[in-house]
Amino acid sequence: MSIEFDGSEIREWLKKSRPKRVLIQSPLGLRELAEQIGSMVSREGVDAFISSSPTWGGCDIAIEEARRVGADAIIHIGHAPFLPHVEFSVLYVEARYRDYKPLESLIEPITEALTGYKKVGVGMSVQWLNHLAKFIDDLSSRGYNAVAGEPGGHLIHRGQVLGCDYTSLKRIEHLVDCYVVVGSVFHALGAALISKKPVLMADPHSQKIEWMAERARRILATRYYMIQRFKEARRIAILVSRKPGQYMMGLAQKLKKILNENGREASIIVSDEIMMESIADFTYDAYINTACPRLSIEDQARFSKPLLLPVEAMVALGKTTWEEVLDKGLILNLTLTVHQSTNL
Questions:
Q1: How far apart are CA 96 and CA 62, in angstroms?
Q2: Which helix (H) or strand (E) holds 190?
Q3: pTM for this entry
Q4: Is the pLDDT of residue 208 over 70?
Q5: Lowest CB count within 10 Å: 173, 258, 309, 327, which one?
Q6: Closest CA to 77 of 151, 9, 168
Q7: Interior CA angle at 91 toward 90 and 93, to 5°?
Q8: HSE-CB for 38 with a 13 A CA cutoff
Q9: Which band of pLDDT confidence, cut at 50, 70 and 90, is reported for residue 338?
Q10: C-alpha to C-alpha distance for 93 and 96, rounded to whole angstroms
Q11: Triad 76, 124, 131: Cα angle to 5°
C-alpha cells in the first residue's frame, strides 16, 4: 500500500531544528521508507544514521541509541507523537496510507456485519486516519449514526487508537451500540478488552472483518487463570522497561512495597526488551509487567510463569475484584487505583 510521505515537512524540520546528525528509526515493514528519508536527510547536508533496532511504538524513542552515535535529533517513522517531553528534537513521520480503496472495499461486508446496530463508534490505527471522515460518511450514507471520539491520554488525533490507549473510544462509549476498529486484530482486540460494547475489526490489509468477542473471551479467561496461579507465588519480580515511554520505576517501587506488606518477596528487574529469553534463568515464581501492557496479553504463552499487569496483581492480592476491573475496562491501565476506596 502506498505511504504518504511529505518530504517538504522533513526539510522544513531540518531547517528549523538544525541538527548535525539524525538517527532514523522505523518498525519492520517501513524500512524502505527509512532508506528514502535517510537519503533525503543526507542530501540536505546532515549526517543520517539508520537504526535497525526494533521499535514498537511512539513510546519507544531511541534516545540511548541516538546518544551513543552522537545524534542530536531523531526521525521516528510509523507512529504518532506519544511522549509529551523528549530531550531530543523528534520528528514523527506517521506514514499514513494514501489509498482509500482497500478500506472502501470492506464497506459492504462491514455494513452486513453491523446488521442490528445503528450507533457505531469508529477507531483507526494512525495509518488509516486520513480516511476517517470518508469512512464515517460512507457508514452514515448507509443509515448508521457513525461517530469518532476526541483524543486524550496518549492519543493526539480524533478517532485514533493505540494498542495501549483507547481513550477516543471510551469517550463515546455511552453514545454507541458497537465499535468498528480499522487496523489489525491487535488494535481491535485491545478495544474488546476494555469495553463491553461489541467490537468489529476491519483489516484493509487482509481484507478481513471479524467480531472480537470470542478472542477477548479467551484472553480474559487466560488472564484470570494467571491471576489464580499468581496467588500461590511467594517470590515475585517486577519488570521495568528502560524505553522512554514505558519507564515506570515509581509504579514498580509502589508494587514492591505492596507485595512486601502482603508477605511476598519482591525484586525489580530492569531491561530494554522484556523477553522470556532474558529472564528464563531467574527462579522467581511470577512476574509483574510495568512495561507495555500488551506484552502480558499477546506474549503470555511465551512465558512459563504468570506475567501479570499491575491491576491484575491487585486482584490477586485481594485489593480489588476481577469483576470491577472488567466493568471499568481497566485491564490495560498501568495503575494500582481502581476506585477511591481501594486502600493502597
A1: 21
A2: helix 185-194
A3: 0.93
A4: yes
A5: 327
A6: 9
A7: 140
A8: 15
A9: low
A10: 9
A11: 90
